[in-house]
Amino acid sequence: MSKGNCQMWSSYAQAALRVVSAYAFMLHGAAKLLHVPHVAGYDNLQLFSLIGLAGVIELVFGGLLLIGLFTRVAAIIMSGEMAVAYFMAHASRGNPLFPFMNGGEAAVLYCFIFLFLAVAGGGACSIDRLRGARW
Fold this sequence. Notes:
With 135 residues, the chain is mainly α. The chain has helices at residues 3-33, 50-67, 71-90, 99-102, 105-120, 127-130.
């Protein structure tokens, strides 16, 4: 396989990572704000709370990431949210160097996936690519 083909396929793999991770992330925001899927712990969620703000970020910026619009900006905000979530909610439950023991594996993975996308961009099949955006 030539180098050009590898670069083309890596751009599509990058786009697939962007879409799948954004969709999974948006489900957290939808559960918090729209109650779909229903999670009983979010029944009395206040919009103007830390968890409410997280839901807005997850839904709005997750949607932008899903379609690949303002990918880098959305991804850096989402990466930051996950870093804060890890250190506030998970690292305090146990050793911060062992996320599998404090329930923070998803937060760490989301944080670094979004950090990668903030640096690398949205890949193929993104609105940013169509409009020729460099940031």
